[in-house]
Amino acid sequence: MRSLVRASLNARLGANITRTQPGINPAYRIPRGALPTTTFQSRPSSTLDPASTQEKPRSFPVEGFPTIKADQPAEEEQLFDYSACRYYPVHIGEIFQDRYQVCSKLGWGSCSTTWLARDLKDKKYVALKVYIHNSVFHRELPFYEHIAPYLSSDHPGRENIRRFHDSFTVTGPDGRHIVLVQEPGCISLFDLKERMHENRFPEEMVKSILTELLQALDFLHSECKAVHTDIHSANLLACMNDSENAKFKGIEDSEMTSPSARKPVSSDRTIYLSRAILPKEGPLRLSDFGEARIGPGPYDYPAMPMPYRAPEIVLEVPWSYPVDIWCVGLTACDLLGLDSLFSADHTAGDMYEPAHFAELIAVLGPPPAAFLAFNPEKAAQLWDEDGKWKDVVPIPGKGMLESLEGQMSLPFAFVKFMRRTLTWVPNERATAKDLLEDPWLKD
Question: How far, rounded to the nearest angstrom, does the alpha carbon of residue 382 sit from its chain's CA centroid?
Fold first, then answer.
């Protein structure tokens, strides 16, 4: 990543970052020898043939780690719809496909967990993304199969797509799970931002990040004919150059000397806390294509996380590439540490859509007639025949986009950039290729 990680950032964060669960007291660390060696024993999922590999698996500690209290939600347990039976109970030390030994946990989400693994055959580190049982987020593997022919192009954006190596299935206590083998990401920009003292990236860094994101989107839109639909800072990964893959050994070694905090849930299920490291330099990779759409569309069913939903999604009209551009603008605000423009409270029930539209009006101004004409029947529920808001919910006192000028010392050129990404009418948004030449980014 050209300027994401600089000396000043390294000085503030350090070379290695261990992700910790809020509220866990280091005093919970259990001294070595305090637990019987039979507790939380990692188990292999297959038997290795010693003659078939050049590396031997390691035996990871089964004691000496901090524990999380039973009544304290850990990682994926914090999800409002969490159900243990949907997640494969991965254990550190477990071996998949006679070659991938799990070394540590890298992250978690609503549809999967991600683990660092050592490839015993190719002697490198990879990431194993283990999807939940019966996952509806089934589009990632077809997406990678679709873009494979385009990765040989000379488009620079291909280097900003997270790399895929292999896939397989594994059967757990409650069914089959898809596992993707990918390049390991060091840390997401969401997690990296949380670890910064200011809880924001400097403007010049954000410009560099957005440039690489837009390169990735231009590659997806113009060459691969695919829509990501789920762009936000948690899906942007700081990665290492290929030559630095061996540095992930630091995470593996940390698991040997200072095992990750964990929560024993049952005899066969343990929830581990994730780890991450900070690369000194490397590419930004766009990841998580589980909701990607192959082909330009238009598509006519819901998509996108609620706070990031573009106006056309909320109005329930066909959508395509411009939804990704909408998310570019919201991601820019997030990275800069600005207040969220739209909360889109999913707990609002039947009032969710009116509340979201009210926020859109507050920030963008009233929608043009052309936008309401996309779905007159739905629009009539919230606007009168003259296009005036019916005050179904009050319009909040948020400032217009122009109010962003001066915040964090941002110039008006940034506001103009935002106006090119956040528009009511989809085809009025700039393309990724257009935004790469935007004066604010180029300055």
Answer: 33
